[in-house]
Amino acid sequence: MQAMTLDTAGIRSENRGPDQLRSIRFQNHIAPHATGSTLIEWGQTRVVCGVTIEENVPRWMKEQKKEGGWITAEYSMLPYSTLTRKQRDATKGRIDGRSQEIQRLIGRAIRAAVDLKQLGPRTIWVDCDVLQADGGTRTASITGGYVALALAIEKLRQDGILKESPLVNGVAAVSMGVVDGVPLLDLDYKEDVNAEVDMNLVMTDENQFIEVQGTGEKGTFDQSALQQLLAYGMSGIQELVTIQRTAIAQAAS
């Protein structure tokens, strides 16, 4: 990968500047048996997000007499999603640490979108399956997972299962990083593996933070770099929220 500076940012995928997202497209209702589903295509990353509903809650909620419902997530990368075949977790007999971390992040993020008490005693499953990985699979899973959730909630409302929507926030996520000393928004795989700093930002549509993950992978970073990354990320989130709203509205029309 060539050295990247602000003057040569055009060498990024899709000829982007440092503060630009890759192209994003949603194909809704991709999984007919899911209550809500979408295929999010984010640059060359593609993730199917499907939401299903169970009319019960986890055992621990019953034991602790917790009111309302629950939202949880599962995440997997299909064997052909990467350049070299990725072994299935089922074959290994366990979920690898990265997948476990990501599905917990997806669950935390999506729970921030819903009033769990208003949801009632039911469990929402958000399943995210990566068809093709080119960086940002966790942020694509969260951003697509919210769209699938919104579609599922609307179906439950139309079917009379829910009288009112329990959605309280929109949720989206985006990656940022520093590559060759330059802060960048929305890293693809080549940028991600060369990043000195790697960050992920999860926010609501009301500019409230859900999670900020930031690591100096190959060095440290100062306050100025952090502020620039957050500024890029917050701007990117607002753009994502607009794209999500359009996708949800088109599904209803």
Q: Write down the CATH topology.
A: Ribosomal Protein S5, domain 2
**Residues in helices, as a percent range:** 25-40%
Residues in β-strands, percent:
25-35%
Largest sheet: 5 strands, mixed
Q: How does CATH name the architecture?
A: 2-Layer Sandwich
Distance N to C terminus: 44 Å
CATH class reads: Alpha Beta
Query: What is the fourth-level CATH superfamily?
Result: GHMP Kinase, N-terminal domain
Global Rg = 18 Å
CA-based shape: globular
The class by helix and strand makeup works out as alpha+beta
Question: Unreliable stretches, pLDDT < 50, 5 or more residues?
Answer: 1-9
Order of helices and strands: EEEHEHHHEHEEHEEH
Whole-number average pLDDT?
A: 92
How many separate domains?
Answer: 1
Would you report the number of β strands?
9
Features:
253 residues; alpha+beta; Ribosomal Protein S5, domain 2; five-stranded mixed β-sheet; four-stranded antiparallel β-sheet; 7 helices; 27% strand; globular; disordered N terminus
Q: Which helices and strands occur, and which strands form pairs?
A:
Blueprint: E1 24-28, E2 36-42, E3 45-54, H1 59-63, E4 70-77, H2 89-92, H3 97-111, H4 116-119, E5 123-132, H5 137-158, E6 171-179, E7 182-185, H6 189-193, E8 197-204, E9 209-216, H7 223-252
Describe what this molecule looks like in 3D.
This protein has 253 residues and is α+β, with helices and mostly antiparallel strands. 34% of the residues lie in helices and 27% in strands. The chain has helices at 59-63, 89-92, 97-111, 116-119, 137-158, 189-193, 223-252, and strands spanning 24-28, 36-42, 45-54, 70-77, 123-132, 171-179, 182-185, 197-204, 209-216. The strands form two sheets. Strands 1-2-3-5-4 form a five-stranded mixed β-sheet. It has a four-stranded antiparallel β-sheet with strand order 7-6-8-9, with helices on both faces. Helix 3 crosses helix 5 (137-158) and helix 5 (137-158) runs parallel beside helix 7 (223-252). The longest helix is centred in the last third of the chain and has 30 residues, at 223-252. It is globular.
